[in-house]
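Ticket #4471: structure output looks truncated?

Reporter: J.K.
Steps to reproduce: submitted the chain below (136 residues) through the standard prediction queue, then opened the result file.
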Amino acid sequence: MAEVAGKTNVVYVHTEAMTNSTGAKITGADNASYKTLCDILDITSFGDTNRKRMAGLLDTEITVSGNIYTGDTGQGLLVPGSTVFIGCYPQGTAVASMQVQAIVNSFEASYPVDGKQTFSATFSCIAAPVALPAQA
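Returned output as attached by the reporter:
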């Protein structure tokens, strides 16, 4: 498998599961991270001489950041407490990918006097990832 440059990634968001013609691109996004976690359950019993653990539930956290674009539909959907579907196209929109339903945890805007205006949004996923069709 060949390496893929990060510059091909595109992030879309929508209030319901996206099809090949729905969803709003988050304009200005220039960084996205997708973190999959697993609960680790301690199942050690009395008399054991070492800890015993097992895998529990999976979880996903997503962070998207970039440049603020006033009036952008995608950035406008990033309201803390709202439920959205968020999907990343790491290889561009012509290649199908995955989307996941998530709650927007936070949206932070930064307006430094000596730099560009930026945003950062975090998401806690509330379901398993599902297919994200390539954009038409």
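Triage note (M.O.): checked the attachment and the full token line is present. Strands lie at 10-14, 24-25, 29-42, 53-67, 83-89, 97-110, 118-125, 130-132.
Status: closed, working as intended.
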